[in-house]
Every structure is written in C-alpha cells, then in structure tokens.
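Lab notebook: predicted structure, single chain.

Context: the supervisor wants predicted structures on file for every construct in the current expression panel, including those that have not yet been purified. This is the next one on the list. No modifications to the sequence; it matches the entry in the shared construct table.
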Amino acid sequence: MCAWYDTTQALFGVDIAVRAGEVLALVGANGAGKTTTIRSILGLTRTTGTIEIDGKNISTWPTHSRVNRCGIATVHESRSLFGELTVLENLQLGSKRGPSLVPDEIADLFPIVKNRANSPVATLSGGERQMVALARSIMRNPRLVLLDEPTLGLAPIVSDAIYEQIVLLSRQGIAVLLIEQSINRALTVANRLQLISVGRTHDSIDSKDIEKVRNLEAQVLSATTFRTAPMSEAEVQNES
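Prediction complete. Output recorded below exactly as produced.
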C-alpha cells in the first residue's frame, strides 16, 4: 500500500497483516508513517494497493462503510470523547444499537464503567478516559481495533493497566493493530512486531525472538524519519 497527502507521498510500501486474536505492534520513530497507516486503513488518505478484511478488498470503500461493514474500531491518542457527557452516554454513542445498556462483559472488563458510569468524562483522569475510549470501541463488537499510541502521556502504572486490557481484547478473538514508539512497551502485549521506516514496512518478527527484537531496536534508532521532498517515480520504481 502507498498513500498520499495531496501530492506528497507519505507511504511508499506498507504491507501488514493482522490475524484474529493477535496484537501486531507497528513500531518506528516519529514521522515513519505509523499514524498514516491507520488513516489509510480507514480510508482517510488517498491510497494505491489493496486493503483487505476477511478476504474483501475494501480499498475503494468510503470510511463509514469500512467501519460499519467490516467492524473496525479506532482509539486515537486524542481519545475523541465528549467531555460534557457521562461515561455511560459516551458508551451508548458507540453502540450499534443506539442508546442501550452496557453489556455486562464490558462493564466487567472495564471497572471504570461501573464505578463512574454517571460521571462526566471531563472529570476523569487521562488514564480513565482512555479506558472509556477502549470500552466504547468494543461496544460495536469489532473484528479489528486500531490503537494509535494509546498510552502516550500517561503514567507507567496507568499504561500497564491499559495494556492489560488490550491483551484481554485480543483474547476475545479481536485483531489489534497497535501503533507504538516504544519497543519495550510493545513487547508487553504484542505477539508480533513490525518496523515501519520512512513509509515502508519490514518483515514482522515474533516478539519472543530476543535477537531479532534487539536488531529491530537498533534499526529504529538508526532510521531516518524524514525526507526533504517526496520520492520521484523513478525512486519509487527502484525501491519496489
């Protein structure tokens, strides 16, 4: 997959596959193309190549069709919650069925849903808001959850709690694509790691393969994370 912002090419060759019930962590430095990859999956950038879910090519589908018909849920760094609404009201907005009760399994998975159901989201801490965002994402019974640096700016103890929830999501058979800068953090939850550098992905590796993980860390440290100009067509052909 390749992607553009207007006439500027941002992705030059992204090839990833996430299986049901696993967490794939896409790692790389700032500017490598991690967030653009998520935006491309959602149809928010112009792309070429194939994007498939359950064997269906959704490359030409509008964003709302990808989200609704393919069961895609997204949790952004900004969390995109409504601060003036309560926790329960925010969750109801995420339900396919409209206003409804929160299923017991979601309330059990995220204690904040039980403990602060009637509290305005604006009164919650950053970690609590992220928990609500995760809970809302699975109100739609997704098959794929896209997480864009879900613990950015949060205290380590809060990050640990959120990553525990991510593991539980995968154990429910949900495919999780995790965007993460920290390889050490990604290792706590990911089944596989995949490097993206200057808009290109490299082979994924098993998170338990210590030697390959250390090599991956070295690649991230040495990766060039910007270009002064988009690649020419000749450069693109040479790289493909």
